[in-house]
Amino acid sequence: MDFVQENMPKKGDKVVVGLSGGVDSTLTALLLKERGCQVIGVTMSLWDGRLPDLSGGKTLHDSCYGPGELTDIEECRSFCKAEGIEYHVIDVKETYRQEVLEYFKAEYRSGRTPNPCIRCNHSVKFGALLSGVKNLGIEYDYFCTGHYAKIVRPEKGLFGSDIRPCMIHTALDQSKDQTYFLYRVPSQILEKVRFPLADMSKKEVFTLAHERGLKAAEREESQDFVPEEYFDLLFSDKPSVPGDIIDLDGKVLGRHRGIEHYTVGQRRGLGVSSTRPLYVHSIDAKNNLVVLADNDQLNSKYLIADDFVWPGNVESPDAFEALVKIRLASRPVKVRVEKYSPQEGENFVGQPWKITFYDEQRAVAPGQSAVLYSEDGIILGGGIIAKACN
Asked: What element of type H or E holds 153?
């Protein structure tokens, strides 16, 4: 199937730009202004101050959720004032708390490994933030961010339909590609979304930013979600429930401090003595168990995923081949994708799909996303991993 890249904003278009204070979003806003667009900057306010400031007086720029937000906002405001750009801060604290923080905790407590950034993009950055823009009475032609991704449209309808939705294509700079995080953003939202850095490398971005004297070019790159030191505080609302650590034969190897502190594939911090390396194979939330195994026992032949999203809500009526990423850092691997018929006692969100690997994959973690790509890097759909199967 052939695809065409959607046009970028042109001179005279009104463009809302999501600003974080980082070099990517700041350069995006400035390039659009230089193009002659009417640019409006907006920043999400997430930090509710419920957790203590652990920064030791230093500004935290390494996360999206933390007390450093106030400094980020002031830097965005100063940039916009200097460039004559209209600027607004939009409060999305409650949505972020419910849709990201509470989700994050609930998933870990159910023995799954969540991806809060995927949830945030769908519900907050391209959800509550845009609702806040609308509530301010701001009409716009495009919403742009500094993500590394492209928006494309198929020349023909998907899977034999007449629907040609906006779809997400991998960025030129594969080392910075962020499409995995964006797969749940609905196609109708993508109609007005553009990523001006899609065809640039990170090196080019820094070069352009330095040429323009942007203060943001001197900042360290931010990391998503929260600093590690906040994790225990996030889970302090309920006491952890210790339990047994066992092997695949059921032999007790030690005690865990609560299943929310463990993830599939984890090796360090297990607190057990062994003559060989052991890894978290699986987490049995029902029985409050953490199961360990040798590295070669972590491989899976296939997975079952549910809660799928499809571009334009068009799913294939038949089995098909694709590439899949089972976590952000994994390389795409070839798979066969087919509908799965639930067995007795199984419960899923929507239609589940069976994704069979041509080569077994290590540490498939329930709660993470399985994102399907075409051979040329276009997202075909994706869902949440329900279980890994050997």
From this structure: strand 150-154
Q: Which residues of the chain have pLDDT under 70?
A: 51-63, 220-229
Structure-token pair, residue 25:
């979003």
Integer CA distances (angstroms), 141 to 8, 18, 130, in order: 11, 14, 13
**According to the model, what pLDDT value does residue 61 have?**
46
Q: DSSP states of 200-256 as a string? A: --HHHHHHHHHHTT-GGGGSPPP-SS--GGGHHHHGGGS----EEEEETT--EEEEE
Q: Which two tokens stand for residue 143?
A: 């919403």
Helix (H) or strand (E) holding 33: helix 23-34
Burial class (CB in 10 A: 0-12, 13-18, 19+), 74: exposed
Strand order through the sheet with 279-284:
252-256, 243-247, 289-293, 279-284
| Residue 57 confidence (pLDDT) | 47
CA 130 to the chain's CA centroid: 18
Report the pLDDT value the prediction gives residue 58, as an integer from 0 to 100: 45
238 token code pair: 């309920």
The DSSP code for 94 is: H
- Amino acid identity, position 270: L
User: What span, in angstroms and rounded, lies between the C-alpha atoms of 63 and 324?
Assistant: 27
Round to whole Å and give the CA distance between 110 and 300.
21
- List strand residue ranges (DSSP E) for 101-221, in order: 142-144, 150-154, 167-169, 193-194
Those residues whose C-beta lies under 8 Å from the C-beta of residue 213, and which sit 6 or more positions away, are none
User: Tokens for 127?
Assistant: 């959800």
Cα dist. 133→78, 85, 129 in Å?
A: 20, 15, 6
Amino acid 65: pLDDT: 76
Q: In 3-state terms, what secondary structure has residue 162?
A: coil
CB 16 within 8 A of CB 136: no
**Chain centroid offset of residue 339 CA:** 25
Output the six-digit token pair for 38.
């009417």
Q: Is 274:359 a contact under the CB 8 Å cutoff? A: no
